[in-house]
Amino acid sequence: MSIRSITKKFISKAAWRAYNTYRKGVTYGSQLSRIDALLNAPRAAISAFQQSQLEKLLRHAYRTTPYYRELFKAEPSDISQIPPLEKRHIREQLARLCSEAVPQQHRIKNATGGSTGEPLTFYQDRNYWNQRNLSVYYFDQWAGWNFGERQLIIWGALSDMGSPREWRHQLNNFWRNHYWLNGFHLTDLRMRTTFQQMDKSPPQTILAYPSSLYQFARFIFENGLKPRWDLKGIISSAEMLHSHHRDLAETVFSTKVYNRYGGREVGLIAMECEEGRLHINCRDLYLEIDSPDPYTEPGDILITQLNNYAMPFIRYRIGDIGRLSDASCPCGSPLPVLAELLGRSTATFRTRTRTLIHAGYFTQQFYNVVGLEQFQLIQETLKHCVLKVVVNTQWTEAARRYMVQKIQEALGADVIVTIEFVKEIPLPTSGKREFTISKVTASD
After folding, report:
1. Does 172 have pLDDT greater than 80?
2. CA 374 → CA 162, 205, 215, 363, 391, distances in Å?
C-alpha cells in the first residue's frame, strides 16, 4: 500500500470516528461491542431481547399513534393477532400512523424508489437512523468492510447519491474514502475510467446493485481486463441477487459476494455469512413469514421495525416472499436463517397448480441466449405472458422458440407467450432493473 493510501486511510478513519461521535455519541464504539455480544448470544437471549423490544414498541404505538390506538382497542399481548400493515394503509393513513409523542420537526421524511409502482412516503427518526447505521457497520464487516478502508460503490438511488459536481458529495466521498460509479448510467467510458482509477487506488470492498455489478463485471471480462485488487469481499444490495450475477462477479473479482437484504422502510433485514446463509437482523426487527408453516411453505415476509418510534411499522408486508430454516448454520452464528428469499411478490410467478416460480429461474435460463441484449417477462394472467426483448443481428428463430419453451415448461404448456420486439426496456424511476414482473396475486 502506498504512503498516499495509508495517509488517506488514516484521515478517513479519524473522520469516521468524528462523524459517529457526533451522530451517536462518544459511546458508539461500545455500542458496536454490545451489538456483537447480543448477536452472538444464545438464541434464547436474542429472543428475550426481541420480546422486550416488541412489548415497548406495541405499548408506544397504542398510546401515541392514532392508527394503532383505533386498531388495537387495548394494549395487545400477542403480535400474531395484529393485522398486517399494508402499503395502502400507509398511503391512506400516513398522518395517523405517526406518533404524537415525536414532534413533527424530529421526523425524518423518507420514501421508496417506487420500483414496483408508486413511491411510498413514510417517516423515521434520528434514533432509527443511528441504530440502522450501527447494524450496517456490524454486518458489513462480515464482508470485510471496515471504517476508513477504500470502497467502490456502484449505486443509483438519487436520494443516496448527489451529483458528482456537488461539493457535499465530493466531500462525503473524500472523508468516507468512497469512489462512486453511477449505476443509473453505466457507459463504457465511465466503467473504463472507474477500472483505471481502482487499479491506481484499489478498493478493499465493493458495494453495488447486483445488476450494476454484473454489468461492470461483464464489461471487465469482455474487454480482457484483469483487476489487480485484493478485495476482501463484495456486498450486493437493493435488488435480487441472481446466480449469474454472483458467478460472474466472483470469477472476475476473485472474491466472495455477500448478499445484503433490506428495505428503505425498515433497514437491514438479513446479511449473508461466509457459508452463504442469510442471517436475520434480530437486533433491529422482528421477522415473520405469513404462512401455515414458515419452515416448509414460503409466504409473504412481515417486518416489525423495533427502533422507529416516529412511525411504527408493525407486521409490515414488505412485498417479498421467503421461508425460514430451523437448522444451525456452520458459520456458528446463532441468528435465525432465511432459507429462501424468493424476491418481490410481484416478481414471483404462480402457476395454475399454485406452484411458486422464482424469478431467478428465468434470468438464469435467458441471460446467455445468443442475440438477446435485454429482456423483460411479464405474467399478465395465469394463462398469458408478454416477453419483451431487445435483440441484435445474432438473434435467431431458434432463440425465440427456446425462450418460449422455457417459459411454458415452468408455467404450463398451454400458457400463451406474446413476444414484443422493442428498441429498449427503459429503467423505472427507481433505477432498479425489472427483468420479471408478475401481475398475478395469490387470490387469482
Report:
1. yes
2. 28, 28, 12, 10, 7
